[in-house]
Specification:
By secondary structure, this protein is mainly alpha-helical. Strands 1-2-3 form a 3-stranded antiparallel sheet, covered by helices on one side. The chain has helices at 10-14, 19-33, 39-45, 51-78, 82-96, 104-114, 119-124, 130-145, 148-153, 161-175, 186-208, 212-241, 308-314, 323-334, 338-354, and strands at residues 285-289, 294-299, 302-305. Helices cover 59% and strands 4% of the residues. It starts with 9 loop residues before the first helix and ends in a 6-residue tail after the last helix. The protein has 2 domains: 19-241, Heme Oxygenase, Chain A (Up-down Bundle); 285-355, Arc Repressor Mutant, subunit A (Orthogonal Bundle). The chain binds pyrroloquinoline quinone. Pyrroloquinoline quinone binds at residues 68, 104, 155, 157-158, 161, 164-165, 190, 229. Pyrroloquinoline quinone binds next to helix 10. Ring cyclization and eight-electron oxidation of 3a-(2-amino-2-carboxyethyl)-4,5-dioxo-4,5,6,7,8,9-hexahydroquinoline-7,9-dicarboxylic-acid to PQQ. Its EC number is 1.3.3.11.
Length: 360
């Protein structure tokens, strides 16, 4: 094949590399083309994406996860000996599990549910970008149609995945308040599975790429696979970051989500009580918007305009004062009746709590 990004060093392709040189050449491909370098991953790991952009990533990547065992079954079907099949079939078990509710696909569904998706919507693959589908399908076709050496070499991106997984998990946990360790449980197992799989595949490639042509084919296969991963992120970036052109049938923010549970309540119908101590949740803050010359309440992905009364109340919401104390302070400032103010601000604060921009 013609590599999309030809690997430099054409003289090296003329001669037979030692197994160590071949490994170094393969690692060099990853160092230059692996998807850890993609701007979308940088934004994801550095906490620069909105919750909807993280959702778009989780949804699209589900298709990759779902098709990996299809790809591995295609490869398995072509393996001529039982010993190799025994080893390779473990990959299918890792993703599909041994029983209902087990395996990597299931754990990815948990991740998607963890960021708000309804399970059935994810399973339907309805909102997935066509470009995601095309590149993942291209990987399955490649593995089905190319030589066994190329098919196995194309899985070698897994050599590079433990580093990106560690970076991703640490970065996402640190930077997003909607991501928990349980949500990212998918990656725990990959940290041992990926090196085991990559060691086997690398050993196979080093032993079977016995001519310069075969070594070149293995390198091209790995390059191809890097482009499979890269183009998925290009598509996400184009649709959901910049310029933000979401194709007609792809997921639109808001679709396929489970309704967010109402704010935890103590009083009747979730109403705040005078003794409650309100505070702004993590990630929510009041700001003065210079351009619009007004105060706003900034929450992840949402902004609420605030009138003067709301600004006066929220300035006193500090996680220490109760509603009654806030009413008392306002009554003194404005020389008004504390009971009347308390009744008014209970309505206002209850409304904010129901919008999940206030906690008690
Ligand atoms: O999180 C990642 O960045 C990442 C990368 C890759 C990869 O490099 O192909 C895989 C995975 N994860 C993964 O979870 C996975 O199951 C997997 C299977 C394969 C493969 O080619 O057979 N790659 C990957």
């Amino acid at each position: 094949m013609n590599a999309a990004f030809p690997t430099p060093g054409t003289d090296a392709s003329q001669r037979l590399l030692s197994p160590e040189e071949l490994e170094a050449a393969l690692r060099d491909i990853g160092a230059r083309r692996y998807h850890n370098l993609h701007p979308f991953h940088r934004l994801l790991h550095d906490g620069k994406l909105s919750k909807d952009q993280v959702r778009a990533w989780a949804l699209n990547r589900y298709y990759y996860q779902a098709m990996i065992p299809v790809k591995d079954a295609a490869l398995l079907a072509r393996l001529p000996d039982a010993a190799l099949r025994r080893i390779w079939r473990q990959r299918i078990v890792d993703h599909d599990g041994d029983h209902e509710g087990d395996g990597g696909i299931e754990r990815w569904l948990k991740l998607a549910e963890g960021v708000g998706f309804a399970r059935d919507y994810v399973l339907s693959t309805k909102g997935i970008l066509s470009a995601t589908r095309f590149s993942v399908d291209a990987y399955v076709h490649f593995v089905s149609e190319r030589s066994l050496l190329e098919a196995i070499a194309s899985s070698l991106t897994e050599m590079f995945s433990p580093t990106i997984i560690s970076e991703r998990v640490a970065g996402m946990l640190k930077n997003y308040d909607f991501i928990t360790k349980e949500t990212l449980a998918y990656f725990d197992k990959r940290l041992t599975q990926a090196p085991r799989d990559a060691d086997f595949a690398l050993d196979y490639v080093k032993r079977h790429a016995t001519t310069p042509e075969l070594q070149r084919a293995a390198m091209d296969a790995l390059t191809f696979k890097c482009t499979v991963l890269w183009t998925q992120l290009d598509a996400l970036y184009f649709a959901y970051v910049a310029p933000g052109m979401i194709p007609p049938d792809a997921w639109q923010p808001g679709e396929g989500l489970v309704a967010e549970p109402a704010a935890p309540t103590t009083g009747p119908a979730g109403a705040l009580q005078a003794s409650d101590v309100p505070r702004l949740p993590r990630g929510v803050r009041m700001r003065f918007d210079q351009a619009r010359d007004k105060h706003v309440l900034l929450a992840p992905e949402r902004t609420f305009d605030l009138d003067d009364n709301a600004v006066a109340v929220l300035s006193l919401v500090d996680g220490a004062r109760s509603v009654a104390q806030i009413a008392q302070a306002l009554a003194e400032t404005y020389a008004a009746d504390a009971a009347v103010i308390e009744a008014d601000i209970l309505v206002m604060l209850t409304d904010l709590a129901q919008k999940r921009v206030l906690e008690r």
